[in-house]
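[job 4417] fold queue: 2 targets
>>> target A
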Amino acid sequence: MKFIFTLLILIFSITHASARDYLITDFGAIGDGLTNNTSSIQLAINKAWEAGGGKVVIPKGKFISGTIFLKSNVQVYFQKGAKLIGSLNPDDYKKVGKWKALIIAHKTSNVSLIGKGCIDGRGDKLALKIDSLFHAGQIDSADYNFIEKRPKYYLRPLLIEFLECQNSVVQGITLLKSSCWVQTYELCNHLKIQDITVDSDTYWNNDGIDIVDCKNVQISDCDINASDDGICIKSEDWTRERFCDSITISNCSVRSSASAIKLGTSSVSHMRNISIRNIKVYDTYRSAIAIEAMQGGIVENILVENITATNTGNAIFMRIGQIRGAKHPGKLRNIVLRKIKVQVPFDRPDKAYTIRGPSLPFFHNVFPSSITGIVDHPIESVLLEDISIIYPGRGKAAYANLPLNRISDVPELPTKYPEFSMFGELPAWGFYVRHVEGLKMKNVTIRVKKADYRPAVVVDDAKGLKFDNLKIKGDKKNDTVFIKNVQ
């Protein structure tokens, strides 16, 4: 894969070295932070495309724009100090497929967004403007989420959408303040996202990066701060002919008011051959790593290693389920998690966020990591190796209680949206395991800082369970591991 991406960069370099630059100010753009420059920027892109390719340059300045459409063999280059700023007029945004976005690439080849400037969606102001249109009677009630009291996601523009694109590069730029997901890449092949900064703790559904049914993807050296999932991999192709394959995520920093790295909540088709390495997670409300198979697809051959997570609400969450009308549960198998260190706090880790995940409506003690299939659909072949998780303890039965003699009271909930808190109070403080075949824990250390009424590890219904140097520290109880229905 590395050779392919090196060749991709070389192709971009050769293509753009022989092509001319198209400065957007030469086409009438004005960087005064007031003028709408949509037509001027689009004209520069179109001219470069008509000439067979070229570099469209956004210079230092504040350039307001609505939706612009990228074209094949065109690089958009942001000079230092360049700012592309989203219009606050909802009518200035267009869509291809289900998403509106500030920048759209559809069925392009050899497109890139590169440079040292930034894209600012002004998502808080734009989303509130859209919200006001509903209250003024200009948005249909079918397009409004009455429970969450906000316009539905498809009315709120992303910053970037690439759909059915080949050989794409996004590098160096800063993405600020989206009104929905920050950026999505769907049905793309050979995609490189490198050295970008995402800072979007602005409004609801602010996922940092979403990859949907893409192949040959490299995400590296990115800094993500998002009020929803940090980096999220999805599959939504009901034909199951297109799926996620050969995706590498490395050397990234993630802060999230949901989960830092998440795979498979949307998993209609398949996800395979995914590696996640060298990730720093901090101040994250939900899971550092969430791997799920929830809509009938197969999630397999996943490697996660060298993860350090501090002040993160949950370490590891793995789940099989059957949501959103899926005809059958998914499959989750061949998962390796290695060299992971997590520190779980007692208090809510995202309390400093502007947009915080919703509080839970029930009393609970700190949640353990969990690995849970469903009846007759176990998670298969999981290796946890060189794992260290520190828990705060302080679990009190008087606050919330699920004793071992009521372990069958833990609900199955196959059709419920997957979250580490979905089962309510769990009977373990370190790991809760149910419906799993072929789980090996090797050199796993879990430590509790203060006393917790629960055992460290609870296993209910497992085959091929193996503990190799499992260490439990800080728990003074005689029985720290509870095993039931294990073959």
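>>> target B
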Amino acid sequence: MPDFYFSGPLALYVHIPWCVRKCPYCDFNSHEARGPLPERAYVDALLADLEQDLPRVWGRRMESMFIGGGTPSLLSAEALDRLLSGLRARLPLRPDMEITLEANPGAVEQGRFAEFRSAGVNRLSIGVQSFNDEHLRKLGRIHDRRAAFAAAEAAHTAGLDNFNLDLMFGLPGQTVAQALADIANAIALQPAHVSYYQLTIEPNTLFHQSPPTLPDEEILDAIQERAQAELARQGYARYEVSAYARENRRCQHNLNYWEFGDYLGIGAGAHGKLTDPAAGRIHRLWKLKHPQDYLARAGTPESVGGDAPIQEADLPVEFLMNALRLVEGVPATLFEERTGLPLAALEPALSRVRARGLLETDPDRLQPTTTGLRFLNDLLQEFM
């Protein structure tokens, strides 16, 4: 049995499952809103859900919060304020902690940015994906490039300068020049953070049923290499496989995931990961996915879709598949702190990947080399 002596920081993920229209590449738990959202009932359900989970985290302070979806910015400012007020009444929160809200470009939502800030949101993550209208159409997005520019400008106007722009590359028919134009447009809007990730075809999506033609590997490599260079030149340091940030603007909530910290998950389909030092276990638990099922059972044991301990044999790769996404890696001591296992549990794979040039040789850090970061799946395969 692992011997835990430090369970690490605690974060909160809140899932809002509704969106205006399901995108063909999206495999998240999102459902098209048909009519007004049941805001009051859903906020009540979220708070009841939290109360049911509180005994698992007594005495621990919440360090960050991420409200994702779906499209959380579809919520009214009043509903968001009631949610955040309810959370503050039930949880000890770190003063001035990072509270991120996902938002999609659209005139209705942009008008709410100042109200969201008044409610307590201090960071936005705006799902732009592209500034090319043709690519946005192929991605099934409901906004155009003008709305994308307007959303970023509205964030600045509202005083929410700490915002992320989500961008995709490897889009259907995308050229290197078009991808670099997206990067240039993003930089011009002066976000604090850029998430830049490759479009992948996921199961249970419309794109999986009818796959579009995507750029070949040579184009993808050229896009990634030149985009990374331009982001670095403009002051956006790459700190994770797909994340680039200005100084002191790394996403604290996502860092907690990558450093194998704990988090509660409330909302339809929300996942959590919690350490139980007394039992020597780390649990993953998740809530019912469908909004109607969740609303009917929130706050009861029946709202839990599953609760399963991570097996001891799986802990090393579970830790590494998160930690090795970080460009700087993590201190070697973090492995034992977060898994309860000795570093020796990673041998002999640790020696093999260092010999292959996939992991830096510093014994005090678990850090991928440039090659290891590029071929992360090959690196992780050695520990499976």
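[job 4417] complete. Note on B: The domain at 10-256 is CATH 3.20.20.70 (TIM Barrel).
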